[in-house]
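Slide 14.
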Amino acid sequence: MSIKIKSSFNRSFAKAFSWRLVATFTTVVIAYFATGEIHVALEIGFLEFFFKIGVYMFHEKAWNSIPYGLNVEENQHNTPERESKRSASTIGSALVLGSVIAEE
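Slide 15: predicted structure.
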């Protein structure tokens, strides 16, 4: 049994965009307290919003290909024969599926 689920570009973009809104607001607040000038804080926030959204998407896609820290539990009774045929891609796919189901 092999399941392969990939995160779409649109999903990654939506996550990146929503996170950038939160992070940019935080940056603007910090920049305002550091400079005392709202126009400088907004300029910093504007620049970092567009730059970091691309960096975040690259980071997200890179982590989608890394199985580090993922755990899988199979619901089927595993025989020794079935256990020996299990592959790393099946484990990784099941983890992705679990995270997709958890979001619903």
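Speaker note: Residues 79-104 form one domain.
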